[in-house]
Write a structure and sequence with these properties.
Structural Genomics Hypothetical 15.5 Kd Protein In mrcA-pckA Intergenic Region, Chain A; 2 domains; 4-stranded antiparallel β-sheet; 6 helices; binds uracil
Length: 231
């Protein structure tokens, strides 16, 4: 890897800023001051900034308690994004494993490991996502059976995959789906003549939202939590 790219990743700076750091003679590679960003850095090279060893970090994994009112994209003209809540170097390199609507709250996973997030988002991997849903109207008796069978959403060519519905109260349910179509939960309830008033994702696969996280807070996943999706 080029030295300037290595500095961007380890120091969280732009290419331009990396060039300035190099010019100030603050960087050594294997004990030698290097001023050129084009120099190639081998995997075992000892790169230091003002005497401090710089190391590339491995893939990163976080869970966030997504609050309402923030959007799951890198940029938005009108609303804050979840990325402004992430106080991490190179936060823009992370992506969301299964986006939530702006008004949906709950468990959001962020990573820079594309293979890992694919296991969560691809319907092929049959990863459950469980939502607590508050409905405008009381749940009709046949909805659980309809969702178990699959329903046709407006604008789609195929029915939804079998989903599990558990009634909590007249207007409150837990819904587990394995897909992540655009506005899927809201459209499923629209398809059976109801309306979602509020939506909260409680779990993804075996991983539940950490209840010590307040809305807007996040934490790194533990190695065991990361491994839950790799088996
Ligand atoms: N389904 C929805 O309709 N919205 C979400 O945010 C997630 C699932």
């Amino acid at each position: 890897m080029r030295l300037d790219k290595f500095l961007c990743e380890t120091l969280g700076v732009t290419r331009k800023q990396a060039a300035r750091v190099l010019k100030s003679e603050a960087i050594t590679v294997n004990g030698e001051v290097i001023k050129s960003g084009a120099v190639k850095v081998s995997d075992d090279a000892e790169v230091e900034f003002e005497g401090q060893r710089l190391m590339l970090s491995g893939p990163r994994y976080f869970m966030m308690h997504k609050p309402a009112g923030v959007v799951c994209s890198h940029e938005d003209a009108f609303n804050p994004t979840v990325f402004v809540l992430l106080e991490e170097v190179n936060a823009e390199k992370l992506h969301i494993a299964g986006r939530l609507d702006a008004d949906t709250t709950g468990l959001l996973l962020l990573t820079d490991d594309g293979q890992w997030s694919h296991r969560i988002t691809s319907p092929k991997h049959k990863c459950d996502k469980t939502y607590r849903v508050w409905l405008a109207d009381p749940l009709a008796d046949d909805v659980a059976a309809q969702f178990e069978q699959g329903v046709m959403l407006r604008g789609e060519k195929e029915e939804t995959l079998p989903a599990k519905l558990e009634k909590v109260d007249e207007c409150e349910v837990l819904l587990t789906i394995q897909e992540g179509k655009y506005h899927q939960v809201k459209r499923m309830f629209a398809a059976v003549g109801n309306r979602v008033e509020a939506l909260h994702r409680e779990s993804v696969g075996p991983l539940c939202l950490d209840d010590s996280l307040e809305p807007g807070e996040y934490r790194p996943l533990t190695a065991d939590e990361v491994a839950m999706f790799i088996k």
